[in-house]
Design goal:
By secondary structure, this protein is mainly alpha-helical. Among the domains are: 79 residues; 94 residues, no CATH class. It contains 26 helices and no strands. Helix 14 packs antiparallel against helix 15, helix 17 runs antiparallel to helix 18 and helix 22 packs across helix 24. It starts with 9 loop residues before the first helix and ends with a helix.
């Protein structure tokens, strides 16, 4: 009798049976452990010898930036005395060109003694410039470090360069948001976010840019908020207002007042009402931006609005804002003439606003109301104290000749009260106090010093 599988070719039978029955495989002979070959042992790499040569140490350090950067970095950290800055910079420059991510990661571990975080007169811009150079060679890598470089250089170093995202088409909005959200809030991060947001706004349009902005950490949204909202407000001001009301960004009040300042969403009074009711802005922290617009377009209407405020605290804040606005569009003498027309209880705050931007550059003009006696008598002591505090903050030394002359030309109780208040304000600044006393007659100065 034929097998029921006899119609299949022999190979087919084998395959089928292999599915049904375990296939018996021949067993390999067990290796003799004694006869087995010994494992291959690779010779250990020779240790890296790092000894600074007498000739051309800069080139020597740069070579390590590409050959053995990690070993050289560890050697660098252990050196005492510390190698010179030129050598350190040459090494990092070569390493950044060779492997930017590893180099910047190492830079985060640099101790403060290397002074890459110094600012002011000693500002060290080495890593800032390295990031700028990296933008041309490797934009994606540069972008990963633009916002994190502040961890190396500190937050006070100026980041004044453009980020050419058109050279980095491989970066997606999601990647950019990820890198941005890993970065410290600061100027470098703001430069990065603002540049990419504007690039995205141009290339992808408003809706994509808005969606991307909302993926940023709240503390980073402010960097692009203004540019996006200004464009957004052209077609959908209501959408902007709703976004600003709902966002958790810590700068939303500030940005909202800026936007109200630049875009006519409503009349100034309506805009101030919205800022107060929906943004929690108080008169001084937010509404004064709108008061400036209001004052410049309708000074009488702005003053009428402020005088009609029933909440006294808000009124005092608002009159301070008008004082600022006046000095932005008028000279100090004209502003002080306006202050003199106000009720006495508003004159001090209006003067404080006027002094905010002008006291340092035109101190003598604020002394004139004292000698002209144009302010309310009941605020004179407060006004003198404001002037004395200004000197305490260093706001008059550029006008020393004029102030010296004013002191000579205006003897009397008001002048003496001003001198006494100023001496008190400078008690903890002996150098400035001696400078001020040098404007006075010798006998008067000695008396104030307590010397015969």
């Amino acid at each position: 009798m034929k097998s029921p599988l006899s119609f299949l070719p022999a190979a087919g039978v084998g395959v089928l049976l292999g599915c049904l029955l375990p296939v018996m495989q021949p067993q390999a002979p067990v290796a003799d452990p004694v006869a087995s070959a010994a494992p291959v042992v690779h010779p250990a790499s020779p240790p890296v010898v790092i000894e600074m040569p007498a000739d051309d140490p800069i080139a020597w350090a740069a070579e390590f930036g590409t050959s053995h950067p990690q070993e050289f970095f560890q050697w660098l950290l252990k050196q005492n005395p510390q190698p010179k800055g030129d050598l350190v910079r040459a090494f990092f420059h070569a390493w950044i060109e060779h492997d930017p991510d590893a180099a910047f990661k190492a830079a985060l571990k640099l101790p403060a003694r290397f002074r890459f975080g110094a600012s002011g007169e000693d500002e060290n811009r080495f890593f800032v410039e390295e990031v700028k150079g990296l933008l041309d060679r490797h934009p994606a890598a540069a972008f990963r470090w633009i916002g994190r470089v502040e961890q190396v250089i500190g937050l006070s170093v100026t980041m004044n360069f453009n980020v050419p995202f058109e050279n980095s088409p491989e970066l997606t909005p999601e990647e950019v948001a990820k890198y941005a959200n890993q970065s410290l809030p600061g100027q470098a991060t703001e430069v990065m976010i603002c540049a990419y947001g504007r690039y995205l706004l141009e290339k992808r349009g408003l809706s994509d840019c808005i969606a991307w902005m909302k993926t940023l950490n709240p503390e980073h949204q402010g960097a692009i908020m203004e540019a996006v909202c200004l464009e957004w407000g052209k077609t959908d001001p209501g959408g902007v207002m709703k976004y600003l009301e709902e966002t958790t960004s810590s700068v939303r009040q500030y940005k909202a007042t800026e936007l109200m300042n630049q875009v006519t969403y409503a009349s100034p009074t309506k805009a101030m009402e919205w800022l107060e009711q929906h943004m929690g802005a108080t008169s001084y922290t937010g509404l004064n931006n709108m008061l400036e617009i209001f004052d410049h377009s309708d000074a009488e209407g702005a003053q009428k609005y402020v005088m009609g405020l029933e909440d006294k605290d808000k009124q005092l804040d608002a009159i301070k804002g008008l004082g600022e606005s006046h000095t932005m569009r008028s000279k100090v003498p004209e502003t002080m003439q306006w202050v003199a027309t106000l009720p006495a209880d508003l004159q001090v705050e209006a003067t404080a606003g006027a002094m905010r931007w002008r006291l340092g550059s035109d101190y003598i003009s604020f002394l004139t109301p004292l000698s002209d006696n144009i302010l309310a008598p009941e605020i004179q002591d407060r006004y003198i104290q404001q002037l004395a505090d200004g000197i305490g903050q260093g706001m008059m030394w550029d006008e020393k000749a004029a102030i010296h002359q004013w002191l000579d030309d205006h003897p009397g109780e008001v002048r003496d009260a001003f001198v006494k208040a100023t001496v008190t304000a400078l008690e903890k600044k002996p150098d400035d106090l001696n400078k001020f006393l040098s404007y006075l007659p010798e006998a008067e100065a000695n008396k104030l010093r307590g010397t015969p």
